[in-house]
Design brief:
Length: 206
């Protein structure tokens, strides 16, 4: 699942200011952003109300089933005429959905969310940085934990010098390599990380 997080209202307003006197339609995504509660009905309604309180011309807040997959712009407008009436769209979806609507709508399309990583959802808990989509997956040797996604430096041969007592030098997060070591040690499989791993082969993404 693609993980997103809301932009601050200040950042959104600064983007909107670049398009003065434009009417807005807030657009949510009925799949991923709805699932992790960053772009579902409640979030779209809240964003619509916040922008209206700031005196902006917000025509409506609408949900589309798949922001990143549709037959055509006309098919979206048929279900949601407000999308066509607005001068620009504020889309609460992950990056691919925003890009698609920007290509097919012929309007300015602004992002209401930041796309942060590929993660997972377990019950009501969202996990970030599960996969870097590198095209060269060997997560099995790391006890199911991807160091390319979980480490800010994408270290594949152990922790950097900034890891202290299991914590990353970037505050507020554990070192993924501490977790990898603990899991492999508990399974008696530390030998899996004895060798030196080559850099990611990015050609495999092509």
């Amino acid at each position: 699942m693609i993980i997103t997080r809301p932009k601050s209202i200040e950042e959104i307003l600064s983007m909107v200011e670049m398009f003065p006197d434009q009417s807005i339609c807030v657009v949510g995504c009925g799949v991923g952003a709805r699932k992790i509660q960053t772009g579902g009905e409640p979030q779209v309604s809240m964003m619509t109300a916040r922008l209206q309180r700031r005196g902006l011309d917000v025509l409506d807040g609408k949900m589309v089933k798949h922001a990143c997959s549709t037959k055509s712009w006309d098919s979206l407008v048929e279900e949601n005429p407000a999308l066509d009436k607005a001068d620009m769209l504020l889309v609460m979806s992950f990056g691919a959905g925003i890009s698609l609507l920007g290509r097919i709508s012929g309007k300015p399309v602004l992002s209401g969310l930041d796309t942060t990583s590929l993660g997972s959802v377990l019950k009501d808990e969202t996990f970030e940085n599960f996969c870097a989509m590198c095209g060269d997956c060997n997560v099995g040797i790391y006890a199911g934990l991807c160091p390319k996604a979980g480490c800010p430096k994408s270290q594949v041969n152990g922790p950097c010098g900034g890891s202290i007592d299991g914590d990353c030098e970037i505050g507020g997060r554990e070192c993924i390599w501490a977790k990898i070591y603990e899991r492999l040690e508990s399974r008696g499989m530390l030998h899996l990380i004895d060798g030196i791993r080559p850099p990611v082969n990015h050609d495999r993404r092509l």
